[in-house]
Automatic annotation (TrEMBL):
Listed name of the protein: Phenylalanine--tRNA ligase subunit alpha
Keywords: Ligase
InterPro entries referenced in this protein's UniProt entry, alphabetically: WH-like_DNA-bd_sf, WH_DNA-bd_sf
Superkingdom assignment: Archaea
MF-aspect GO terms: ligase activity
Tagged with keyword Protein transport: no
Length: 168
């Protein structure tokens, strides 16, 4: 059976390694990725090697995600302002939130138990709760995931699936 130089090098390294990740095989052979892939495919077609493919789901931040990693999630920024002042109006939140971020914030702060909401002089007033004060120093799963993604750029989905539910 006739083998090319790349096939011979790849086969010898595979024999020594027995099983190898593609990246490791490229490193060991000293060949470029295309040459190694071509060699492995030819070796497989000749019955001398077997290629196992494994798909990975990768998670990375969008532009909005990168922005929030930098300036903080809207609910965190709102909570910080609330903690500084004790109570605020919806208008006060415009100092730290965009109009799009402002719309769902009251519901989020209430759902998390971070603020109570009431009407005072015709305006919505938010007041920080004890839970809100305690949450200032606590990290939620979404906060941890955002930090991980900001630090590492991209992460395999299985690494963070235990922290937050991932949608396709």
């Amino acid at each position: 059976m006739e083998l090319s130089y790349q096939e011979k090098v790849t086969l010898i390294k595979l024999k020594n390694l027995r099983k190898a990740k593609f990246e490791d095989l490229v490193k060991e052979t000293g060949l470029d990725q295309v040459a190694v892939m071509r060699a492995v495919l030819w070796l497989q077609s000749k019955g001398l090697a077997r290629l196992h493919e494994k798909q990975k789901k990768i998670v990375r931040l969008t532009e909005a995600g990168k922005r929030y990693a930098e300036i903080g999630l809207p609910e965190r920024r709102a909570l910080k302002l609330l903690a500084e002042r004790g109570k605020i109006t919806l208008n006060d939140l415009k100092e730290v939130l965009s109009d799009d971020e402002l719309k769902p914030i009251v519901g989020i702060l209430r759902r998390e138990g971070w603020a109570t909401v009431r009407k005072e002089n015709g305006e919505l007033v938010l007041e920080i709760t004890e839970r809100g004060k305690m949450s200032l120093n606590e990290s939620r799963p979404i906060d941890r995931v955002l930090k991980i993604l900001a630090e590492r750029g991209e992460v395999e989905a299985k690494e963070i699936e235990g922290l937050i539910p991932l949608n396709e």
